[in-house]
Amino acid sequence: LERAPFDRIILTAAPPEIPQGLIEQLAVHGKLVAPEGVGRQRIVVLEKRADGSLNRKETIGVRFVPMVR
User: ω into residue 35 within 30 of 0, thus cis?
Assistant: First the structure.
């Protein structure tokens, strides 16, 4: 995308797993917040470290609509 990388990405629909394409668009020290899962879903917070690795934190259980392509 033209404006990537993004400092923050928020999803409002739940993919089974966070898409790699979104992670690639996340800036260093950026955060991505999203529901993740099929059936049992959790809010996931990803933060991209300076070396490109991710810090992943799972929080509360939720129920969102599934993400479709």
Answer: no
